[in-house]
């Protein structure tokens, strides 16, 4: 999970603060989720995925299929 969140955030040129603001959570909480120190509820996963213009299953669940959301960023979730 950590790599896909960080990769997607960097791909969109967003800071931790920007993602947290978009998801209506604190920067510290988002940083902890991205680092794997916190396990968010599904509701928070959905808000983070929306903030990253992605889908919950693409960011938080392990699949070997690459994710193409906008034709520019490809993230393989492992």
UniProtKB/TrEMBL annotation:
Pfam families hit by this protein: HTH_3
Organism: Paenibacillus pinisoli
HTH cro/C1-type domain segment(s): 5-59
GO MF term (any one): DNA binding
Name of the protein in its database record: XRE family transcriptional regulator
CDD domains for the chain: HTH_XRE
PROSITE patterns hit by this protein: HTH_CROC1
Superkingdom, taxonomy of origin: Bacteria
Alphabetic keyword roster: DNA-binding
GO cellular component: cytosol
